[in-house]
Structures are given as structure tokens and as C-alpha cells.
Amino acid sequence: MIPVHYYLILSAVMFITGVVGVLTRRNAIIIFMCIELMLNSVNLTFVAFSSYLGNEAGQMFVFFVMAVAAAEAAVGLAIVIALFRNKQTVNINEVNILKW
Length: 100
Fold this sequence. Notes:
Largest sheet: none
Shape: elongated
């Protein structure tokens, strides 16, 4: 059996990779993928603790986080498509919707 701290280390690496991607990248699609990576790292942590403690509550949280991630992906993709149609770019620096 794999120790729980291996899962937590992997989850931390995934989360840090997602945070670095969100902070450094300017492409909206890559930013959404990094947010998904962070949500999946949280899911891994929930499942690891759920298995370690023998409690199913963590797996229920994973179900709700996955539902939120699916909604975020759908809404985020719709926003990216709308911005691309109006501004012809998905670069965050070039898109300023507050300007006329």
C-alpha cells in the first residue's frame, strides 16, 4: 500500500504547478487548464484522506468539486469563445473589456 504522504506530495506539486501556470501564462485557455489542474490536485487530496481515514465523505466532496469544475469549464469556454469573437485574441493582456 502506498503511504498517504506520497499522494499529498504529488497533490502539492500539481497544485503549485497550477498556481505557477495561472500566475505566469497569458493565454486564457491555458489559465483554465491550470485551474482544472488545481481542482484535480484538491480531489486527489480528498481521495487520499478519505482512503486513509476510511471515511467516504472525502469522495462525496470530490463529486461536488468535479461538478463545479465541469460548470467552470463550460462557462469559461463560453467566455473565451465570446472574447475571441469580439477581440480576435485569447491573450489576457490584449483583452480589456472595460475600454470602449
